[in-house]
Amino acid sequence: MCRWLAYSGTPILLDELLYKPRYSLIDQSMHSRLGVETTNGDGVGVGWYEPSDQPVPALFRGTGPAWGDVNLRELARVTRSGLFLAHIRASTGTPVQQTNCHPFRYGRWLWCHNGAIHDFRELRRDLMLAIDPDLFPSVAGSTDSEVMFYLALTFGLRDDPLRAVERMAGFVEQVARAHGVASPLQMTVGATDGDRVWAFRYSSEGKSRTLSFSTALTALRALHPDMELLRGLSEETRLVVSEPLGELAGAWNEVPESSYGVVQKGDDELGAFTPR
């Protein structure tokens, strides 16, 4: 399985989250505490929007272990963004190659995934045949995660992200049933169009991988008034993470089982996720 994070808020340097926290994403690539695998060394990627009005987000993906990627370290040291998605990969059987590294990108959209479609090789043909023919040429890799992304795009991700991902999940389960595959889907997903961030936590067996979001900044400042970093961030700043980046009291809230969340300007959303 994998680890990922999504950040939305006051522009910060990428290394503030990728490297500096006690349990940073790069630390999790070697010492994951809550993942299925302790080590996530099969690739790394980050996509970001800066300037925020650029038509296509920037994307860096490398096939080596995140802890040894000197190019990522240099990039993170000087790159500032108010919205980015980062991912460290542990392969579930597909090759370690750049096109299989997350985030995946289509137009302004970025997508990353932790989990798996069980027995994906058996289901892969039927799933891929359902992808919109106009989108199909853009599929570049061989992962179940990328297929999920293009199915979600096929089912309307750009117009109604919640319904599109619910339809994607329902379709995967429908195809799996036809092949006699029980409990096929395990996922936490992060997706963004550069404006809002969507997060999804779901599994067919009802035992999903971990996913948390950060507490509102006003509450964090009240709990930890001496933390200088918190003073420089806007009230809109939020983090969604596979695994908390530290043990700061009151900082993290678990996303409930079978739920989705939206980080956006104004009030965020949290609701039930139901495959269709």
Automatic annotation (TrEMBL):
Pfam families reported for this sequence: GATase_4
Regions annotated as coiled coil: none
Glutamine amidotransferase type-2 domain location: 2-266
Record-linked PROSITE patterns: GATASE_TYPE_2
Gene3D superfamilies per the UniProt record, alphabetical: Glutamine Phosphoribosylpyrophosphate, subunit 1, domain 1
Keywords: Glutamine amidotransferase
Protein name: Class II glutamine amidotransferase
Species, as recorded: Paractinoplanes rhizophilus
